[in-house]
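REVIEWER CHECKLIST
Item 1: Sequence provided? yes
Item 2: Single chain? yes
Item 3: Sequence as submitted:
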Amino acid sequence: MPELAYTPIDEIEEIHAELRAGFRSGKLRPIEYRKYQLLQLIYLVKDNADRFEEALKLDLGKPPLESRFLEINAVISEAYVAYKGVDTWAKPEKPPFSLTFAPMRPVVYKTPKGVVLIISPFNYPLWLVVIPLAGALAAGNAVLLKLSESSPATSALLAELVPKYLDPSLVRVVNGAVPETTKILELPWDHILYTGGGRVGRIVAAAAAKHLTPVTLELGGKSPVIIDPKCDLKTAAKRILWGKVVNSGQTCAAPDYVLVPRAFQDTFVQALKETYKSFYPESAKAPGVFSRIVTPQAFNRVKSLLDNTKGEIVFGGETDAETKFIAPTVIKNVSADDSLMSEEIFGPLLPIIPVEDVDEAISFVNERDHPLVLYVFSQDAAFKAKVFQNTQSGACVANETLIYLGADGLPVGGIGASGTGAHRGKFGFDTFTHHRASLDSPSWLTLFWFRIDTLLKFRYPPYNVSCPSVFPVC
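Item 4: Structure as written out by the authors:
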């Protein structure tokens, strides 16, 4: 596995200029060249799947199945969606018919924004690079990838492979930490997509504002789960716990806490206990079955949340600083002011908060920042509708958890503190696309009886007191 080498800061401005020149060359205007780059992106991952699996293990201790299912196979599939879809996505669109303006040939053209910046995080260091990259390339942009220094093996591997598979005048990689990122953000970009925490998201947004650069922020937050006692309990426990233990809870859309009717709490907790035993009959600490926390700093932060909780640990609680292992842990009778509720957990800790009923659960959610995802487990359509219609979140999911991220045709995006904008599939293409309005008034309109200047003559001075009511602008 290659060593991670930081990009010299004095080279970053030159890389930016080279990407600008690459974009202006027009290489990506033809759809066929975009498709070629997307095909190369697919082969980049497919040809090196074993190496990516090893890199993800080194960075995060990911079990092979998680690496294949949630990263490697997933990004190959998503890049192929862009490859197959770009012909249709990039077609000009005609607006609804208008008798007055139809002869002027109104059209919306899909044009690339230019040179875009993608800043990716450590937790899914392949998925959260390839998915937005596919959208940016499909839209015809040149791209700078700023990879995470906290996932050094995967970032180093991508830095090695990107110039081998993709056009280096159109896609470049910068590796580094705060100084390198600071330098990058000083430069003018045509769009920035950042995935990560809210604190850094605000820094990115402030830097972008200096250049009036549009920004897509994929953040996170505390995604709640609301439980209906009439749900399929066994399925709910299995899917909620899976959503929390995948990648050791280091997923922006992971269930962060559960709101459950007070009288149903112990029944629900017992179902989680039985699920945990079925997931890890030996131990979650056994090699190759459970991911590790990414860095010592992240380990200490999550451990501190656990150490300071006033809730009751039902199972789990084991930690090992040397291996950065924190066991899947369920804590019941957690209060709203508990340490576990002070910030996004981003670890394998699942607080259970007892409430009286669904109305209290809805109020609890609405009193806090809008989450990235709101999960509901219920077989009652009215219960689900009540929750979804009376809350706000980036996504709303019933009777499932993280699997929604793989559902065809759905965007990934937050609202409010959980993010702004969206990407993935067609939504990624649209994020990196300028929808350019066009009107072309042909000369023949002034030659025949249907003279446009006769129909619209009221627009010229000296103005009349009124204009025809057929024009809604009047």
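Item 5: Key structural point noted by reviewer: Residues 296 and 324 are 7 Å apart (CA to CA).
Item 6: Recommendation: ____
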